[in-house]
Write a structure and sequence with these properties.
Layout (H helix, E strand, L loop, with lengths): L5 H9 L21 H13 L4 E8 L2 E12 L2 E2 L6 E2 L4 H14 L29 H5 L31 H15 L3 H13 L50 E2 L1 H12 L6 H8 L24 E4 L4 E4 L4 E9 L2 E9 L4 E7 L2 H15 L6 H12 L4
Antiparallel strand pairs: 1-2, 1-10, 2-3, 4-5, 6-7, 7-8, 8-9, 9-10
Helix pairs in contact: 1-9, 2-9, 3-5, 3-6, 9-10
């Protein structure tokens, strides 16, 4: 697997000029559309890492002001603003926003036991089920593993008492979705549509599996260029029609997710009190923090960092960034927005995971040189490139 050397990507940045003038690096929390030379450098990073399809967006004050597309969404079809990307774990932000809007409407209690609505059979005999709440799911202190199939017995179990330890968990979001379904008596995708997709105007976003009309979806391929099918994995597993996930596999366009970030910025659907809770660091990720201020002294060091309600948060002296990333076998995604500026960035990459990871540091160096997320991707890339990996 070929991974672009980070120094080479950064050298592209240092050489980027238009009319012989090197662009100034914007202040942290501020973004500007790249010049022609930077766009050309961006396309070189993507080509060098064999990115199949890519979509980018930059927001200024909550408005999508620049977008760029690279590669093909399928053989012979150039990627465009209508291309849907698998956003992987960024799906969790839409599920979280659905929950917050339900809290605001009185249809969900942030701190009530989810066991009142739903108990997974695997934990029916564990009394800790009664201390699991929507808040603890959204701030990743559910106590669950990321996925039950990572456990030897492939069963859901509490690995920590809810509310006591950070533990990133897709299972927690799936559990919350099922509890919401049973409380409200509607399928979770329909609730997401009613609470978020329709009000925000996300007309090209799909939460549930729909195999018809997939011609606009970026076509995933493995490291050998083989396409296993939409909603399928190289190991042969495919998701069934109508199946959904609150934690993964949302299909979304760049303009749709930019609309979503704008709605988050404006706290649409709930009041400022709940927005403050969303943006407050409630869970410290410890060694998995966004920025390692000791190991990466060149990175901007937050005053506080961790999870709020559904979003990863980095708080600085004069601004805050809310964001989330996603990764799976055929995608890397990252999206975030700065408050109070309202500037934001959307990155969707469709490519085998290591190739996409190899491109991320160079992409961020070009589009947001002071991004607090860059430190994490540099670390992950160094680990991936280490001998023996």
């Amino acid at each position: 697997m070929r991974i672009l050397v980070l120094a080479g990507a950064l050298m592209l940045v240092s050489c980027t000029r238009v009319d012989g003038v090197k662009p100034e690096t914007p202040a942290q929390g501020r973004l500007y559309p790249p010049d022609r030379g930077s766009v050309a450098a961006l396309d070189r990073v993507l080509a060098d890492n064999q990115i199949v399809t890519a979509g980018f967006g930059i927001l200024k004050n909550g408005e999508l002001v620049w977008s760029h597309y690279h590669g093909e969404q399928s053989p012979g079809v150039v990627a465009s603003a209508s291309t849907r990307f698998n956003a992987a774990s960024i799906t969790k932000t839409v599920a979280a926003e659905t929950a917050l809007r339900l809290v605001a409407s009185g249809e969900l209690d942030l701190d009530a036991p989810l066991a009142s609505y739903w108990v997974d059979p695997d934990i029916a005999g564990d009394p800790r089920r009664d201390s699991l709440t929507a808040r603890r799911v959204l701030n990743h202190t559910s106590g669950f593993p990321n996925w039950r199939f990572f456990r030897p017995d492939r069963k859901l179990a509490f690995e920590h008492d809810p509310g006591t330890h950070y533990g990133y968990s897709g299972e927690g979001f799936e559990y919350l979705a099922r509890a919401i379904e049973r409380k409200l008596g509607d399928p979770f995708p329909a609730i997401v549509q009613r609470m978020v997709l329709d009000p925000v105007g996300m007309r090209d976003t799909l939460i549930a599996v729909h195999r018809e009309g997939l011609e606009r979806v970026a076509r995933p391929v493995d490291a050998n260029g083989i396409f296993p099918g939409f909603y399928c994995r190289p190991d042969g597993g495919c998701r069934a029609e109508g199946e959904y996930s609150a934690a993964d596999d949302m299909l979304v366009t760049v303009p749709d997710y930019a609309r979503f970030l704008a709605a988050v910025l404006q706290s649409r659907g709930y009041d400022e009190v709940l927005a403050i809770e969303r943006d407050r660091v409630q869970t410290d990720r410890g060694a998995e923090g966004l920025v390692d201020c000791v190991a990466d002294p060149e990175a901007p060091c937050p005053v506080a960092q961790g999870y709020g309600l559904g979003f990863e948060i980095a708080q600085f002296e004069d601004h805050t960034v809310l964001g989330h990333g996603g990764a799976d076998w055929s995608e890397q995604s990252l999206a975030y927005i700065y408050r109070p500026s309202g500037d934001g960035l959307v990155i969707f990459l469709n490519a085998p995971n290591l190739q996409a990871l190899g491109a991320m540091p160079g992409i961020l160096a070009l589009l947001d040189p002071r991004s607090p997320f860059a430190s994490r991707y540099r670390t992950w890339l160094a680990r991936a490139a280490a001998p023996g990996r």
